[in-house]
Amino acid sequence: MFNIDLHCHSNVSDGLLAPAEVVARAAANGVHALALTDHDAVAGLPAAQAAADAAGIVFVPGVEISVTWRGQTVHVVGLRIDPAHPALAAGLAAIRRGRIDRARRMGEDLARSGIAGAYEGAYACAANKEMVGRTHFARWLVDTGHAPDMRGAFRRFLTRGNPGYVEHQWAALEDAVGWIRAAGGVAVIAHPGRYAFNAREIHLLLDAFRALGGEGIEVITGSHHPSEYGKWADLARAFGLKASRGADFHAPGEGIDIGRLPALPHYCQPVWQGWAELAGHSSLTLA
Ligand code: AMP
Ligand code: MN
Ligand code: MN
Ligand code: MN
């Protein structure tokens, strides 16, 4: 049985494991093919590729790009990208520059609510100093006793209407999809069930994404409750999009582990169908 996981994070973004450790964990979990998809960063791909080669698992170079669409943040996963492509590299570098300023503003906003030192604390938690994000703030809030756990940190802080949340303009959808396609990759909308869009807005998003050359949506993800899988599988089919599968693993004990997900519904068209690097595995159905 073929186990593919096309969404996970290392400490190059907001995961806790180094890229080679993420790959080792995937191999230990029985994953045959893995994409590392760090937020707005591709610096972990060479080490992950080397570790995957050594472990004998198929590696798919990936990224998860932060986008603002209709005033909300949407994540677009790029799979099979060439990370050296100049347009992609420049676009991601610009997003990372924006993150630094945003992290400072988040720290100032928390300070106004009486929580001092959050920026410095989150910065210290981040292995990659270009990639301080809300997860680092959340881990610091938990470590310092301001929140009971990660869930509580995001419920009380860091989300719209709460201390530590600041508005931020990420990339345009058109740009993110354009960079991924220019870099030879396949664009996939990450965890579509997590956005605060109504049904009409979801339809508009899927239409716009498809018109730009986007090819897939995540159907099976750690962010979807099993009761939602069918809805997203149906929408993928209705909008002519392929289906992806990824745990969105960040750290041991935080959320779903790598590769520990159910199979795609049988009527989905897998986003990985026809990928040459999976030859030898491709005749197998998904675990
Ligand atoms: P950022 O890109 O800096 O805004 O951070 C977004 C990241 O925060 C996501 O990729 C998740 O890893 C994490 N995150 C967002 N909401 C939650 C939540 N409710 N619980 C746990 N982690 C979350
Ligand atoms: Mn994350
Ligand atoms: Mn995401
Ligand atoms: Mn993710």
What's the mean pLDDT score? 96
Q: Just give the CATH class of the largest domain.
A: Alpha Beta
- How many strand segments? 7
Topology-level CATH name of the largest domain = TIM Barrel
What is the share of helical residues?
25-40%
Largest sheet: 7 strands, mixed
Q: Tell me the Rg in angstroms.
A: 18 Å
CATH architecture of the largest domain: Alpha-Beta Barrel
| Proportion of residues in extended strands | 5-15%
Label the structural class.
Answer: alpha/beta
CATH superfamily of the largest domain: Metal-dependent hydrolases
Stretches where pLDDT falls below 50 for ≥5 residues? Answer: none
End-to-end separation: 5 Å
Give, in order, the helices and strands: EHEHEEHHHHHEHEHE
Helix and strand arrangement:
Layout: E1 4-5, H1 19-28, E2 33-36, H2 45-55, E3 58-69, E4 72-79, H3 86-112, H4 118-125, H5 134-143, H6 150-156, H7 173-182, E5 186-189, H8 199-211, E6 216-221, H9 229-238, E7 242-246
Helix pairs in contact: 1-2, 3-4, 4-5
One manganese (II) ion binds at residues 7, 9, 64, 248.
Outline the structure in words.
The chain is an alpha/beta fold and 287 residues long. The mean pLDDT is 96. The chain folds into two domains: 188 residues, TIM Barrel, CATH 3.20.20.140; 64 residues, DNA polymerase, domain 1. Strands 1-2-3-4-5-6-7 form a seven-stranded mixed β-sheet. Bound molecules: adenosine monophosphate and manganese (II) ion (MN) (3 copies). One manganese (II) ion binds next to loops.
